[in-house]
Amino acid sequence: MNRREFISGLRDALAGEIPDSVVEENVRFYNRYIDEELGKGRREEEILAELGEPRLLAKTISETWQSRDTSLEDGAGAYDGGNGRIYSGDGGRRAESGTYVNINGRNVNMNKWYVKALPIVILLLILFFVFWVLSSLLHLTVSILFSPVFWVILLVCMVLGFFTRRR
């Protein structure tokens, strides 16, 4: 894996998990880190091997951001992968409003596909249930109407009603 593949993989893995501004800040951070390490005479392969798989790094960044201390001044941060530090992420800008909702102390990204699909799935389940109940009632009604026992009972009731009214 080369630097371009690493950065691209990191960006792709972070997209939709944390705000775009935080994604770009992390990408800039890792680009600067790689530049600094190359400046120290290290090989690119060695640096990238130390950083690890971009997907795992992105998962750590995302989890760190979502469980961040909300008392941090800027509300965002990045994980450096090596020693567990969190650094100030977006230069004092707040995270995009309306994108994350705090549910039981955890920030939930409302831009994820499954969060957007949830109301549709719930609506479809409700419609399915209503359709199922109505079709069951229709089936029951049709079954009763075409049952010979129904017609015999109806005929007996009509005859009894006829004779009881004549008294």
The general outline is rod-shaped
What is the arithmetic mean of pLDDT? 79
Indicate the proportion of strand residues. 5-15%
Our count of domains comes out at 2
Note the main sheet: 2 strands, antiparallel
For the biggest β-sheet, the strand order reads 1-2
Helical amount among residues, as a percent range?
55-70%
Spatial separation of the terminal alpha carbons: 100 Å
Low-confidence stretches: 71-98
Count of discrete alpha- or pi-helical segments spanning 4 or more residues: 6
- Radius of gyration based on Cα positions: 32 Å
Query: What's the total count of β strands?
Result: 4
Helices and strands: which structural class? mainly alpha
What does this structure look like?
The protein has 167 residues and is mostly helical. It folds into two domains: 3-109, no CATH class; 117-166. Helices cover 63% and strands 8% of the residues. The protein contains six helices and four strands. It has helices at residues 3-14, 20-39, 44-51, 54-66, 113-145, 148-166, and strands at residues 77-79, 86-88, 100-103, 106-109. The chain has a two-stranded antiparallel ribbon with strand order 1-2. A hairpin with a 2-residue loop joins strand 3 and strand 4. It is rod-shaped, with a radius of gyration of 32 Å.
